[in-house]
Design goal:
The chain is an alpha/beta fold. It has 13 helices and 14 strands. It folds into two domains: 1-129 and 257-355, Isopropylmalate Dehydrogenase; 130-252, Rossmann fold. The strands form three sheets. A ten-stranded mixed sheet has the order 2-1-3-12-11-4-5-10-8-9, sandwiched between helices. Strands 6-7 form a two-stranded antiparallel sheet. The structure holds 3-isopropylmalic acid and magnesium ion.
C-alpha cells in the first residue's frame, strides 16, 4: 500500500467546509485504490493571525515541507481587511507560495456537458471548452519592488526577469505537448516593457518545442476573446495578475467559480487549491460548492503522486454526480434535480467512488 502525507491548510470562511468534503472523497478513494493518506493540519490566513498574530506561522511552512503535498482551502474575510498589509491573510498566502517556490499555477477550465446550461453564455459558444490557464504565481506585480503607500500615493511594480519567464514558459509548452499543442501567451506588450521582455523570452523558449504552435495576444483582447470564442484557446500562458483575472473569467464559461481547481507547482512540493476565495458571506451555511476543492484533490493525486487511476475515479464521480442532476446552490438555478448541501455533495461523490 502506498502512503502519502498531506498537509491540510483549511484557512478561513468556507475553507474548512470544502476541505472536509475533499478529505471525505480522498478517504473513499484511498479505500478502493489501496492508498493510505495521513493528514496534518496547519494554519494560514485570518485564523492563523487570530491565534498566533501571524497569517503564516513558521510551523505551517515546516509542516508543508515535510509533506508530499498541500491541500489548501481559502483565506481572507472582511474581519481582517483593515489590518496592516503584512498581517493580512492574503499576505500569508503570497508568502506561502513564495516560500514553497510554486511558480506555476495550473488552472484548467473544462465545460462539463452536464452543466452546459449552467453558464450565462450560449451552449454553442461553450460546448467542448477545455483550456488551461498557466499563470506565473510568484513574480510580477504581486511581488515587484518598489511598492508602497503614503496618504496620497500608492504604487506597485510589475517586474519579470528572464529566468522567471523561461521557467514558466517551459511549463506551458510541456503541458501543451500533452494537449492539443497550442500556446497563447498573453501580455500587454504594446504598452509595458515587462511584457515586451515576456514576449521575446516566450518566443525564444518556444523554439525548443517546434510541434507547439505559439501565438501572442494582448490581455484586453484575450479577455474579450475568452467570451467571444473560448474554444480557440488550449493553453493560455500568462503572468500573475493577468492570470488571476482571466482564470476567474474562464470559470464563468463553466458555470460557477465553485468548480475550478488548481495546482501550484515548482521545484519542491505542490499546493492544490480551488481558484475561488473564502466567500465569508456564505461561510458556515453548508451551501458552498465543494467540487473545486475535490477536483483540486484529484489534481494532487494526478500531479503530485502520479496516482492516475485514483484521480480518474474522482473525476468520474464528480461527472456522475452532475449528470445525475445534483447541484449545489451556485449551480441550481437552471436544471437541478436535487439541490444539495456542501456535505451532501461530498457524500454523493464519495459514494460514487466506492461503488
Ligand atoms: C487566487 C486569489 C489570490 C490571488 C488572493 C486571495 C491573494 O485571488 O488564488 O486567485 O490573487 O492570487
Ligand atoms: Mg483570484
Amino acid at each position: 500500500m502506498k502512503s502519502y502525507k498531506i498537509a491540510l491548510v483549511k484557512g478561513d470562511g468556507i475553507g474548512p467546509e470544502i476541505i472536509d468534503e475533499a478529505v471525505k472523497v480522498l478517504d473513499a478513494v484511498a479505500s478502493c485504490c489501496k492508498l493510505d493518506f495521513s493528514y496534518t493540519e496547519a494554519l494560514m490566513g485570518g485564523c492563523a493571525y487570530d491565534i498566533t498574530g501571524d497569517p503564516l506561522p513558521e510551523e505551517t511552512i515546516t509542516v508543508s515541507l515535510n509533506s508530499d503535498a498541500v491541500l489548501f482551502g481559502a483565506i481572507g474575510g472582511t474581519k481582517w481587511d483593515n489590518l496592516p498589509r503584512e498581517k493580512r491573510p492574503e499576505s500569508g498566502l503570497l508568502r506561502f507560495r513564495k516560500e514553497l517556490g510554486v511558480y506555476a499555477n495550473l488552472r484548467p477550465a473544462i465545460v462539463y456537458d452536464e452543466l452546459i446550461n449552467a453558464s450565462s453564455l450560449k451552449p454553442t459558444v461553450i460546448k467542448g471548452v477545455n483550456l488551461m490557464v498557466v499563470r506565473e504565481l510568484i513574480g510580477g506585480i504581486y511581488f515587484g519592488e518598489p511598492k508602497g503607500r503614503t496618504e496620497d500615493k500608492g504604487w506597485n511594480t510589475m517586474v519579470y526577469t528572464r529566468d522567471e519567464i523561461v521557467r514558466i514558459a517551459h511549463q506551458a509548452f510541456k503541458i501543451a505537448m500533452t494537449r492539443s499543442k497550442r500556446v497563447c501567451s498573453i501580455d500587454k506588450a504594446n504598452v509595458l516593457d515587462v511584457s515586451q521582455l515576456w514576449r521575446e523570452v516566450v518566443t525564444e523558449v518556444s523554439k525548443g518545442y517546434p510541434e507547439v504552435k505559439l501565438s501572442h495576444m494582448y490581455v484586453d483582447n484575450a479577455a474579450m476573446q475568452l467570451i467571444r470564442d473560448p474554444k480557440q484557446f488550449d493553453v493560455m500562458l500568462t503572468g500573475n495578475i493577468f492570470g488571476d483575472i482571466l482564470s476567474d473569467e474562464a470559470s464563468m464559461l463553466c458555470g460557477s467559480i465553485g468548480l475550478l481547481p488548481s495546482a501550484s507547482i515548482g521545484d519542491k512540493i505542490g499546493v492544490y487549491e480551488p481558484i475561488h476565495g473564502s466567500a465569508p458571506d456564505i461561510a458556515g451555511q453548508g451551501i458552498a460548492n465543494p467540487i473545486a476543492t475535490i477536483s483540486s484533490a484529484s489534481m494532487m493525486l494526478r500531479y503530485a503522486f502520479g496516482e492516475i487511476a485514483a484521480a480518474n475515479r474522482i473525476d468520474a464521480a464528480i461527472k456522475r454526480a452532475l449528470s445525475e442532476g445534483y447541484r449545489t446552490q451556485d449551480l441550481a438555478q437552471f436544471d437541478a434535480k436535487e439541490v444539495c448541501s456542501t456535505s451532501e455533495m461530498g457524500s454523493i461523490i464519495a459514494n460514487y467512488i466506492q461503488r
